[in-house]
Please model this.
Amino acid sequence: MKLGICTDVFGRIPFTEMLDRVVSYGLDAIELTAGGWGGCFFIPSAEELIRDETKRNAFKAEIDKRGLAISALNCSGNPLVNAPMGRAHSKTMHDTVELAGLLGVDTIVCMSGLPEGAPGDTTPNWLTSTVSWPEYDGFNYMVEAEKYQWKKAAQWWTEFCRFAKKNGVKKIAIEEFPGALVYNVRTFRKLCEVVGPDSDVLGLNLDPSHMMVMGADPIAAARALGDKIFYVHGKDARIERGIADVDGLPETLPVTESAKRTWNYVAVGCGKDLKWWKEFFSVVHMMGYDGYVSLEMEDLTMSVEAGLQTSIDSLKMTISR
Model:
């Protein structure tokens, strides 16, 4: 495995300065956000790079001359909701695929999206309780909402998978994100089922932090996924003792209120210990994955620099090279 980084953590600094910082950390690759919810600090316009070959070549040359690779383009967002955001994110995901093909990048990282609960709605609706109840006068709105959402997902994702193949993208790595239609192994398999034969291009971006905060075991999930691990985020989370014990894992407080939250994203090694991370990467490698591990640093309990250095040191000591 090789170690890379999601570059949004560097904020709004010049592109070449960001690349030099990545090299200074001894990393192998960069994951760039090209649309969706990401900062898109270093690809402000995928459309522009698609249209302008000269700019695209110059952009790629700066990366190449530093010996770095683009591990993936990230366009995580919600393309499924019937709202301006959904339409914008759908377009940017298609643009990202087209740009990836032109840059020779075979992997994109994204999220499944989340539809509204019924035709005419405009707000995403995440169903997290049993659909067995409530029912009124023979009608169960949760069952109907679930059917509607998966039907919408099947239509959009079937077209998108075909578009990705047409543009040379071999791997769509879906991040199992809380609040998305695909948030665990079971819902990922459901998406593959509703898409059908074109789902061969679908895999999971295994982000262990999201599974931790939902109470799942990322190591067990890696075993269950097998060769459907298409990408890995190096990201840790900590269940906050004394708070989660009282209030449970569901958390709606802003991420900036870390001292009050039941869980937080933290630097690698500040949630799970290094023995755990060694086992995680060992199992991931045993399942056949030998690609990039991309550090996504979102720890607000320490400085950015401290979080970066802590995470990089931990990952260098634990990934299966």
Notes: Residues 2-318 form a domain with the TIM Barrel fold (CATH 3.20.20.150). The chain has a mean pLDDT of 97.
